[in-house]
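Lab notebook page, bench 4
Experiment: in silico fold of construct C2
Operator: M.H.
Input chain length: 499 residues
Purpose: comparison with the prior construct
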Amino acid sequence: MSKRHSIFPLMLLTLALGTSRAQESSSPQSPTETPDTAQQPETPAPAFGQDNPPAPVSENPPISGIDQPGLEPHAAPLSYLQPGVHVSESADSNVSDTLGGSGAHAVTRALGSLTLQRLWSNYKLALDFVGGAGYYSARGIGFKQVEELGVDQRITWKRGQLGIRDSFSYLPEGNFGGAYGSMGGLGEVLGGSASAGQNVFLGGNQFGSLGQVSRIMNLTLVDVVENLTPKSSVTLTGGYGFVHFPGKAVDLSTGNQVSTHFLGSTEVSAQAGYDRILGPHDQAALMYGYQGFNFSVAGLSLHSHVVQLMWGHRISGRMDLLIAAGPQITSINVGTGPDTRVSVAGRASLRYKVAKAALSLSFDRYITSGSGFFPGAQSNIGRLSVTRPLGRVWDGFADLGYAHNSRVQALTPEQQVLCSLSSNQCPGVIANRYSYGFAGLGVHRMIGRNFHAFASYQFNYLTFDNSLCGVGFPACNRISQRHVGTIGIDWTPRPMRLD
């Protein structure tokens, strides 16, 4: 073979090998090739926002806001609809809830409920409704309407969210420590989301109840959270609430309705805060808050300004500890001009969850509306609740609460005369302080998948520093005691998925 013919096959072989290598270099990475051996282009980190949210913001919301972290943070979010029916029977030792009153009567309640949660990519809607009636066997009381509605709308964007929340109720009693089965209260309708964490300061609670007097309560909140950086955020909240007493008390001796001196009120509130994450479990914040109260008796109003330093320690899914304290400046509108006072306001709360129990402990010290008794009160409120499984189908609960309230503005001699004459111009009741406490415990038992039965006992205690007379109560007295035992059954079928 000539030299020319021997070189030609070698040239073809070289060309084929070069083509094969070029195809391998341009083909995708082999499945057996690891990221360590393959060259990958460096991709810049995405900008701070919804595509790269910081973990502390989602499971550790700002402590100056009104949201609390869930103790079940990894629960799958679902869109669902769930109805329910709740029937209970109570034996009440002081069914009219009057000072010095006594006499056991039965109370039957039949309630229906509907819970809705709907999720979209940037929106979340939660709605909870409970409504029905209670029948009181005592003469003159009869049927009482019971309604509660809570709405919570969230709108989220890259660095924050907007929340619009509303809690409405029409109840025959107050909503702080009502006997189990007689309804919960504002802020509890949505698991506490309507005003959790700031419910005392922003309004929506009546820390004391006297008489079966219907009351309409509503609290509307609008709040904004904006994350400035992965470790800092600002919050802004505005609220408007009111309490109205359209009903009258009942004199059990005659069965007639009689007028009361309970004060209706409106409250405008606002707060702003700056939060800073200090570490994996700690936050600090600076918060300013404002309260403005007006009452149903003309000329009664007051304003409060609060500045607080806040610290929170949170362990996701297990513990939530919050402490806040600072000065409170209160301006009272009196006939001779504004009366300004300086005091201390604050709160502390602890929620702790272990495998078989959950505990919630809280203390609050703020100016409140006075719960219909006073035109504004300095309130100190403490509460403790515990739940624990007692077996495969049994679980138990206990709940204790105490509120001490002092009148912000002392009665003038003229007002004392009006109160003694049962005048409609009496600013509440003729007392300077009152305390209200309750203690309750009970058990639940599952009955199949959709039913559970419950039994509970609760003791309520209300005391004033002065005896009250002439406001629809059987006699002059300053103490009300009440024992309530309740049994009932709930029907709550499995939630209906809406996805």
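Observations: The CA atoms of residues 179 and 458 lie 6 Å apart. Residues 1-57, 179-197 have pLDDT under 50 and may be disordered.
Next step: discuss at group meeting.
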